[in-house]
Amino acid sequence: MEAMTYVINQGMSMYWGTSRWTAMEIMEAYSVARQFNLIPPVCEQAEYHLFQREKVEVQLPELYHKIGVGAMTWSPLACGIITGKYQNGIPETSRASMKSYQWLKEKIVSEDGRKQQAKLKELGHIAEKLGCTLPQLAVAWCLRNEGVSSVLLGSSSPEQLTENLGSIQFLPKMTSHVVSDIDHILGNKPYSKKEYRS
């Protein structure tokens, strides 16, 4: 933290954040920063998508409200899984067909992967009703979370980038009813301890 405080004080950066830190580690960093008059992190970079929700929806919200740490999320399309391109197997030109991405291929062809593909098919109907693509639905779904400051997008073509950026226009359509329908299909909405007690 001393190094990051130095970098910010020298004008080389405006802020700093963490990546893949636990909520406890972030809170500890914040406490140490306050104790020694250092600059604390302002955001956490966390994986967040339709199939990876726990950290951003349960572990980090307390930090959003207590110390103002936001989430800069990555992989909104789950390494391409949410695009629907793996619906009928692994295309030869896809990331999952590469030797270094064997783990992704195994994930896609696993039983859980097949269940995810079935859920994506159902989510495609919601996207169709809203007039957007499945990737646009997924990115808009990420952006609708109040604790998400930004969503990092990856694309392999200008067309993909344009499509993904088009998600913003569907953000107003992410009503509580639509989100509830998505949650129903996914069946993976995490609950905080507070919600369990209610």
Features:
alpha/beta; 4-stranded parallel sheet; 9% strand; TIM Barrel; single chain; globular; 198 residues
Write the layout of secondary structure elements.
Layout lengths: L1 H8 L7 E3 L3 H13 L7 E5 L6 H6 L1 H7 L2 E5 L27 H8 L1 H20 L3 H10 L4 E5 L5 H8 L10 H11 L6 H5 L1
Parallel strand pairs: 1-2, 2-3, 3-4
Helix pairs in contact: 5-6, 6-9
Care to describe what's here?
The protein has helices at about 1-10, 25-35, 55-60, 60-65, 100-110, 110-130, 135-145, 160-165, 175-185, 195; strands at about 15-20, 45, 70-75, 150. It has a four-stranded parallel beta sheet with strand order 1-2-3-4, covered by helices on one side. The protein has about 200 residues and is an alpha/beta fold. It is globular and about 55 Å long. It contains ten helices and four strands, in the order αβαβααβαααβααα. The termini are far apart. One of its GO terms (biological process) is potassium ion transport.
**Residue share in helix:** 40-55%
What is the average per-residue confidence, as pLDDT, rounded to a whole number? 94
SSE sequence, one letter per element: HEHEHHEHHHEHHH
What CATH first level would be assigned? Alpha Beta
Distance between the termini: 38 Å
Strand proportion, as a percent range, falls in 5-15%
Gyration radius (Cα, Å) is 19 Å
How many strands in all? 4
Q: Please tell me the total number of domains.
A: 1
Overall geometric form: globular
Number of helices: 10
